[in-house]
Design brief:
Blueprint (H helix, E strand, L loop, with lengths): L10 H4 L7 E5 H6 L16 E7 L3 H13 L7 E6 L5 H9 L3 E6 L4 H15 L4 E6 L8 H11 L10 E2 L7 E3 L3 E2 L6 E2 L1
Parallel strand pairs: 2-3, 2-5, 3-4
Antiparallel strand pairs: 1-5, 6-7, 8-9
């Protein structure tokens, strides 16, 4: 199955958006699609969230992203950063900034966005994740990010995928995306 990533039309104006690209997927959905272990079908609570961030040669963006996740309430050990074979000082800077609070997966080659996320999703499922959140590394989330997603999950237990409102960081009152509609039986979306 494929997860469609939001494409950048203008990298300069969309860089470092308040909520750039995030997708929160309950593991029971992955199981229904034949991925991972079986879940209990309880989607009402936003419990045991693992957040995945893929990095490739952008340590400043990745550190800012992960800092915002912790400021919003991410659990230590529940943030997985995949380094896709960076050739700069990314690994050292991420380790220095977060130490054991972040699980750092090192790839010797660049597996791309999908490959990096797939590696981390397998690790999150092995650790018992109930929800998996994919976050682009140039994302900075609001302090109430997890609270808002948790309220949405609790208020709408029938939802299978949750995506936040995406705003431009330089123009925080300007909406970049309100999300897409999921194509039934897949993780694919359409606008």
């Amino acid at each position: 199955r494929q997860i469609r990533q939001l494409q950048r039309k203008d990298a300069k104006t969309q860089r470092k958006t308040s909520f750039n690209s995030c997708l929160l997927v309950p593991c029971s959905i992955l199981t229904n699609l034949g991925i991972g272990r079986s879940g209990d079908g309880q989607l009402a609570a936003l419990d045991n969230v693992y957040t995945i961030v893929v990095n490739w040669n952008l340590p400043d963006d990745t550190v800012a992203c992960v800092r915002s996740l912790f400021a919003a309430g991410a659990q230590p050990g529940h943030v997985i950063v995949v380094d896709n074979g960076s050739t700069d000082d990314s690994l050292a800077r991420i380790e220095e900034a977060f130490g054991p609070r972040v699980r750092l997966l090192r790839n010797t080659t660049n597996l791309g966005f999908a490959g990096g996320n797939n590696l981390a999703m397998a690790a999150a499922l092995a650790r018992g994740a109930q929800w998996i959140m994919l976050v682009n590394n140039d994302t900075v989330v609001a302090p109430d990010f997890f609270d808002a997603l948790g309220c949405c999950a609790a208020g709408h237990p029938h939802l299978a995928l949750i995506a936040p409102l995406i705003l431009y960081s330089g123009e925080p009152h300007r909406i970049w995306s309100l999300g897409d509609r999921r194509i039934a039986g897949t993780l694919l979306t359409r606008s």
